[in-house]
Amino acid sequence: MILIVGFFGLALAGALSRAFFMQVLKGGEFRMQAEANYLRKVPIPPIRGRIMDRNGLLLAGWEPRFMAVALLGEGGLAGDELEKLRLTIGAESLSVKKSYLGYSILAKDIPYEKALGVLERSEDFGWLLMLPCFSRTYPYRGPLSSVIGYVDADGVGKAGIERSFNEYLAGTPGVKYLMVDARGRVVNEDIYPEVEPAQGKDITLTVDERFQAAADTLFGPYRSGAAVVMNIKTGEILVLYTKPYVDSWTMVYGTSEEKSAALSAPGSPLLNRAVSGLYPPGSTFKPVVALCGLSSGAITPASVFCCAGGMQMGNRFFKCTGFHGCLDLIHAIEHSCNTYFYSVGIRMGLPTFLSEIDRMGFLKRSYDLGIGGEKPALVPSLDYYRKNFGKQLGGVTLNLSIGQGELLLTPLHMALVAALVARGEMPLPHLLMRVGDERYVPPETLRIPLSDKDREAVKKGMLLVVESGTARSCRLPGFKFGGKTGTAQNPHGQDHSLFIFFAPYDDPEIAGAVVVEQGGFGAKAAAPIARELIRRYFGLPPAPLFVVKKPSEDRKEEIE
Question: Among 162, 232, 457, 544, which residue's Cβ finds the most Cβ atoms within 10 Å?
Answer without folding.
Answer: 162
